[in-house]
Amino acid sequence: MAPLLATLISFFLITATAISSPTQFPFQPLPDLFDLTVDDIITGFSNQQFTSVDLVRAYIARTAEVQQALHPIIEINPDALSIAQALDDERLLHNTTRGPLHGVPVLLKDNIGTADQLNTTAGSYALHGSIVPHDSTVAANLRTAGAVILGKAGLSEWAFWRGTRNSNGWSARGGQVKGAYYEDQDPSGSSGGSAVAASLGLAALTVGTDTGGSIIAPSNKNGVVGIRPSTGLTSRSVVVPITVVQDSVGPITRTVKDAAYLLGAMAGPKGDPGDNYTDAIPSPEIPNYASHCTLTGLQNAKLGIPRNIFPAPINRTEADVQQIAAFEAILPLLTSLGANLTDHANYPDIHAYNTEAQFNLALDIGFKHDFPAYMSQLAFNPTGIQNLADLLAWTQDFQAEQYPLRSTDFWEASLASNLTTSSPEYLAAISHNAYLGSNATIQGALDLHRLDALVLPTAYSVRPAVYAGYPVIAVPLGYFNASTKVVQAGGGGDPSVWGLNTVAPGIPYGLSFIGPRFGEARIIQYAYAFEQATQFRYQKLPLAKFMPKTQLHTSMEADVVCPLEAPGLAE
Ligand SMILES: *[C@@H]1O[C@H](CO)[C@@H](O)[C@H](O)[C@H]1NC(C)=O
Ligand SMILES: *[C@@H]1O[C@H](CO)[C@@H](O)[C@H](O)[C@H]1NC(C)=O
Ligand SMILES: *[C@@H]1O[C@H](CO)[C@@H](O)[C@H](O)[C@H]1NC(C)=O
Ligand SMILES: *[C@@H]1O[C@H](CO)[C@@H](O)[C@H](O)[C@H]1NC(C)=O
Ligand SMILES: *[C@@H]1O[C@H](CO)[C@@H](O)[C@H](O)[C@H]1NC(C)=O
Ligand SMILES: *[C@@H]1O[C@H](CO)[C@@H](O)[C@H](O)[C@H]1NC(C)=O
Ligand SMILES: *[C@@H]1O[C@H](CO)[C@@H](O)[C@H](O)[C@H]1NC(C)=O
Ligand SMILES: *[C@@H]1O[C@H](CO)[C@@H](O)[C@H](O)[C@H]1NC(C)=O
Q: Minimum-distance ligand to the CA of 277?
């Protein structure tokens, strides 16, 4: 449902300051915000070409250009400019920098807690106006690194953990996020707003969360890089959960090196009091992931192709056929970059994985436990919702939540089950899932063929990695071609209800590397070497009508007023 009249919630009256009027060097054109990287920002800052304030202004103006059409953002941080100004002052007046993210604007998915003027709601009015006890560890880490938290990105409400009948990218507060590569493009999910914002250059960097593919899947369909880190590498403290057993917070960016910088700032600390899964981090020193970004990164990489996770030939859709063809076509390039490929490095117990993995059970029981734990720590809870039964009743009753058009059946199934996180059946299912995601599949293939990592089309890389917390990186590989038949997104019902196109000419798809637990540095290295040799992100652009026109020079020249309209606030 399209929102009626949007309400203006934020105005940014920008006044020129000494710092935001830098001296521009001749012969150094300002970089394009569609592909601006962290390295470009570091260079631009040190040459005094632009400031963090300039970046924030430009990103807000770019967002305003596409917000009505694509709804990528839910809120802009009212303090973004003053934070950017303070970081500019720190850098310029005191000649100090905190590191590569100093002054870099970052968007967070709306389920990542921030103790500031921004709401943290997972897209739902059930959490609107709630106040978190303190920043999530991820947000705190980013602030310490000098990042400017620019706002909250749209998402599939509750990270799609609500009901089968729903559309990717829709939330009551944020409206329907759409991708920019085709008319009414399904953004995929659940971190669709982050991926669309990264794809169009609405922020330097974005952050998503992943429980069952929510970083990797939208990165796949929006032509960007996504990393689902090993479960526990990034803390879930003050992140709206689905289940701590599988949730992970990770980067969604335009380039591999940007993702490496961002992951380095977000990760850890080992032993975070708010998330005991961080105890598993191998060393208190988080690797310098960006230093693994070298052009020769694929030399002597032993990579395996787990073919038996691909759909069988008789079951392949047109989309499968194209993605597999593109994958086959780049294998010689991987070899020429120095990789040693082992074909048919199959998942050893694929049958058990296919027939025994219990995805929904783990989430059903996990959310029923972890959601009340999240609610109980809130400093202010305006709805009084404390548990899943409260949330179900409230959601079914609150008109903007669009029940029953959008269902709540995941929660109903969860409440109907008598299992808890201490039930033997649940514990057995979790432990069996851990086997199915490791020795039966990823770890089994790595060990059996003595591999460093696996490589495969992103579409088949999302699971089983989530069950045992393996890291995955997705990087652009290609685009559905001009003769592709348009496929609408099902969303648990009649696809015409949502009217979103999930496969269509020009929509991107990717290549993934899967590494061993805490093997992020290694897969970043491989993905970087591949990305630099191919640059598929620049082969085909988003539709021209969705390309924001604001550039740094526009935001630096004029005093701009940037209204951001709140798309979900239909009366
Ligand atoms: C700023 O710091 C750098 C290195 O930290 C130094 O090389 C440079 O001279 C300093 N600039 C000023 C103006 O103090
Ligand atoms: C957060 O929600 C409150 C309403 O509860 C609203 O007044 C405020 O403007 C929101 N913050 C932002 C940044 O939109
Ligand atoms: C974290 O702590 C909880 C409760 O103290 C415990 O049940 C759980 O097994 C721990 N998890 C890990 C991964 O250590
Ligand atoms: C093809 O898909 C059907 C339905 O999902 C499945 O039952 C069947 O096993 C698949 N065939 C092969 C050869 O994988
Ligand atoms: C698109 O890809 C399909 C499958 O690989 C192929 O059959 C078809 O010829 C391609 N069309 C164009 C226009 O390249
Ligand atoms: C690739 O790896 C296999 C298995 O370890 C080894 O036998 C082979 O010599 C390697 N090939 C190259 C070209 O390095
Ligand atoms: C759950 O427990 C209730 C009350 O003890 C019982 O009536 C119901 O049948 C149980 N449901 C299941 C699925 O076991
Ligand atoms: C995987 O196998 C190793 C030994 O090969 C064993 O130590 C480990 O517990 C197994 N992991 C799971 C999750 O089954």
A: 3
Does 130 participate in catalysis according to the annotation?
no
The DSSP result for 450-491, as a single string, is T-SEEEEEGGGTSTTGGGTT--EEEEEEEE--TTPPPEE--T
Q: Using the 8-state DSSP alphabet, how is residue 295 labeled? A: T
Closest atom, ligand 4, to C-alpha of 311: 14
Query: Is the shortest distance between the CB of 276 and ligand 3 below 6 Å?
Result: yes
Amino acid identity for residue 303 in this structure? L
**Over the chain, what is the mean pLDDT?**
93
Contact between 454 and 310 under an 8 Å Cβ cutoff? The reply is: no
Structural domain spans, the chain:
3-24+31-570
Nearest protein CA to atom 2 of ligand 4, as residue: 315
Q: What is the pLDDT of residues 441-479, one digit of tens each?
A: 999 999 999 999 999 999 999 999 999 999 999 999 999
Mean pLDDT to the nearest integer, 244-266: 98
Rounded to an integer, what is the distance from CA 536 to the centroid of its chain? 19
The ligand whose atoms approach the alpha carbon of 132 most closely is: 2
| Residue 7 predicted with pLDDT over 70 | no
Question: Is 190 an active-site residue?
Answer: yes
Distances (CA, A) of 314 to 108, 403, 505: 40, 38, 23
The CATH number given to 3-24+31-570 is 3.90.1300.10
The reply to whether the predicted model has a pTM over 0.90 is yes
